[in-house]
Write a structure and sequence with these properties.
By secondary structure, the protein is α/β, with parallel strands linked by helices. The protein is built from 9 helices and 8 strands. The chain has helices at 13-24, 31-40, 44-55, 61-74, 89-101, 116-124, 160-174, 177-183, 196-211; strands at 2-6, 27-30, 80-83, 108-113, 126-129, 135-137, 152-153, 187-191. The strands form 2 sheets. A 5-stranded parallel beta sheet has the order 2-3-1-4-8, sandwiched between helices. It has a 3-stranded antiparallel beta sheet with strand order 6-5-7. A hairpin with a 5-residue loop joins strand 5 (126-129) and strand 6. The longest helix is centred in the last third of the chain and has 16 residues, at 196-211. It is globular, with a radius of gyration of 17 Å. It binds adenosine monophosphate. The site of adenosine monophosphate (AMP) has 18 residues, from helix 2 and helix 3.
Length: 212
C-alpha cells in the first residue's frame, strides 16, 4: 500500500509508521530521520538543513523533495508509508503529480489527531538514543537499564520554545493539507490519543476497512 501518516509533531507518526514496517512490511520513509542522519554525518544536505531543524522551521521544499523522490524510487513505488512528508501545499502537489506520473497513486492518508496539551507533554518528555535513533518517553516508555544514559539525549527541536514554533508552523503550513486530501477522498482520520498499541489497533482497523 502507498500511505501517508499525517499529523502534528508528537502525534506518534514515527512510532506508528515503524510498526507498519515491522508488522505489515510497509517501509517507513521519514524525511525527518533522513535529515537527522545527514546532520549527524555532516553532509552538505545536513549542514544546509541544520539551522531550519534546530529552529523548528521547515527545511526548504527543494531540499526535501529530492530525498522523498529517491526514497520512494528505492521502494519501487510500492509499500511505503511517508512520515513527515508532505508538509506544505507545494510538496503535496509535487507528490500527487510524481506518483500519478508513475501510475502509483496514494491509497490513503492516515491522519492522527491529538490535542495540543498531549503533544507538548509527549514532546517535552521524549528522548532519543544518540546512535540508534530509538525513541523513548520518560514516563511511558523509558530507556531500558542496560542502555548507557549518556547516549540518551533530547532532540534539539524538542525544547519548549522550539516545540511551540513547530506547532505554529504545523497549523499554518501543514494542517491545511487535511482539506486537500479530504477533497481527494484519501483522508482517514484516526484518534491518536492513548497508548501505542491502542492507536495501532485503530490504524489496522482503518486499513482493513480500506481493503474491504
Ligand atoms: P520530524 O522528525 O518529521 O518531526 O522532522 C523534523 C524536522 O525536519 C522538521 O521540524 C523540519 O525542520 C524538517 N523536515 C522533515 N520533513 C520535512 C518536510 N517534508 N518539509 C520540510 N521540512 C521537513
Amino acid at each position: 500500500m502507498r500511505l501517508i501518516i499525517f499529523g502534528p509533531p508528537g502525534a506518534g507518526k514515527g512510532t506508528q509508521a515503524g510498526l507498519l514496517g515491522e508488522r505489515h512490511g510497509i517501509t517507513q520513509i521519514s524525511t525527518g530521520d533522513i535529515l537527522r542522519d545527514a546532520m549527524a554525518q555532516e553532509t552538505e544536505l545536513g549542514k544546509k538543513a541544520k539551522s531550519y531543524i534546530d529552529a523548528g522551521d521547515l527545511v526548504p521544499d527543494a531540499l526535501v523533495r529530492d530525498l522523498a523522490e529517491q526514497a520512494i524510487a528505492d521502494e519501487g513505488y510500492d509499500d511505503f508509508v511517508l512520515d513527515g512528508y508532505p508538509r506544505t501545499r507545494q510538496q503535496a502537489d509535487w507528490l500527487t503529480d510524481f506518483l500519478e506520473g508513475h501510475d502509483t497513486p496514494l491509497d490513503a492518508v492516515l491522519s492522527l489527531s491529538v490535542p495540543d496539551e498531549v503533544i507538548v507533554r509527549r514532546l517535552s518528555r521524549r528522548r532519543v538514543h544518540e546512535e540508534t535513533g530509538e525513541t523513548y518517553h520518560l514516563d511511558h516508555d523509558p530507556p531500558p537499564d542496560d542502555v548507557d544514559p549518556d547516549l540518551i539525549v533530547q532532540r534539539s527541536d524538542d525544547e519548549p520554545e522550539t516545540i511551540q514554533n513547530r506547532l505554529d508552523v504545523y497549523r499554518e503550513e501543514t494542517e491545511p493539507l487535511t482539506a486537500y486530501y479530504e477533497e481527494r477522498d484519501l483522508l482517514v482520520p484516526v484518534d491518536g490519543t492513548g497508548g501505542i498499541e491502542e492507536v495501532f489497533g485503530r490504524i489496522e482497523e482503518a486499513l482493513d476497512a480500506l481493503e474491504r
